[in-house]
Write a structure and sequence with these properties.
Blueprint: H1 2-8, H2 17-46, E1 53-58, E2 61-64, H3 70-90, H4 98-116, H5 122-141, H6 161-170, E3 173-174, E4 179-180, H7 200-211, H8 220-226, H9 228-231, H10 250-259, E5 261-262, E6 267-268, H11 276-289
Antiparallel strand pairs: 1-2, 3-4, 5-6
Length: about 290
């Protein structure tokens, strides 16, 4: 027992209170066990069965009404006292836990990481973002960020036709603002304040127009009448009103990571396990993909 405890403790006790308590408990348990074992070994050599038999027996085999061995009583009482001390003083509830220590270590590491990379240049920021992307995003979006044949959004372009149509018909949780986008009625009201009705044919036109990088004239009139009031003439959004539908930007990426995203493909969960620097780096990387 002592050897096992010594191995678990790494061969040294040091200043760790947990190791000290473990070693003290092991020593006390071993000492008591040796003392009791020697006592009863000697007693077995000389003692003979005796005393008053209990009334119950099984197939003629009974047992004596012996008192609880004094050593056992001492051990039990000692364990009760030890448990109370350990609970209230030695290892008090709320004072320490391995999970708490881990969280403190992670917080300290994150603070050091944030300070070390607080002022990165654009090249370093995108390089870090690429590394974060490979670990956190590539399993769904693919190493080339192409969405793996529709399994996830293609991040090489801001929007695709099916995503635009889905938002027009169903609304969207607005990742840029972190709030719900107004839900349209089936007649195609993107926003009740615009007063513009969008038919299915117009939806097709404006979806192709936006997905095509807002180039050409086909669908431009529909966009100007129904979308530009909120998203801007260039489609780059209006602060606190609507997100950019022309390009990605770091704010949009950060809010998608924070709130998740629902769309034509399905639901993307929120990713709240990244530090602020990692979110900033990932925003720079993804923004650069569609340029």
């Amino acid at each position: 027992m002592l050897g096992l405890t010594w191995v678990i403790a790494g061969g040294q006790v040091g200043d760790d209170i947990v190791n000290k308590l473990a070693m003290l408990g092991a020593v006390a348990t071993a000492t008591i066990a040796i003392f009791v074992a020697l006592k009863y070994i000697r007693q077995m050599q000389t003692d003979k069965a005796g005393g008053k038999l209990a009334d119950e027996n099984w197939d003629g085999i009974g047992e004596y009404k012996n008192e609880l061995p004094f050593g056992w009583a001492i051990i039990f009482l000692g364990l009760v006292i030890w448990a109370i001390w350990y609970f209230l003083k030695g290892y008090p509830v709320g004072a320490y836990s391995q999970i708490g220590e881990y969280n403190e270590d992670v917080a300290a590491h994150d603070a050091k990481f944030e300070a070390q990379y607080a002022n990165m240049d654009d090249a370093t920021l995108k390089e870090m973002g690429g590394s974060v992307f490979i670990v956190q995003c590539a399993p769904c979006h693919g190493l080339q960020a192409d969405g793996i044949d529709g399994k996830a959004a293609n991040l090489n372009k801001r929007l695709e036709e099916k995503s635009i149509k889905h938002v027009i018909n169903n609304g969207s949780n607005n990742q840029l603002l972190g709030v719900e986008m107004p839900m349209p009625d089936r007649n195609g009201l993107m926003n009740a304040n615009t007063g513009a009705l969008i038919t299915d044919a117009e939806i097709d036109k404006v979806a192709k127009y936006v997905a095509g990088g807002m180039k050409g004239t086909e669908g431009a009139d529909v966009f100007a009448g129904a979308c530009a009031a909120c998203h801007g003439v260039d489609g780059k959004g209006t602060d606190m009103v609507a997100p950019s539908i022309a390009t990605f930007n770091p704010t949009l990426v950060a809010n998608v990571l924070k709130h998740g995203k629902k769309g034509a493909i399905g639901a993307m969960p929120a990713f709240n396990n990244l530090t602020d620097v990692q979110v900033k780096a990932l925003g720079a990387y993804v923004t650069g993909l569609s340029k």
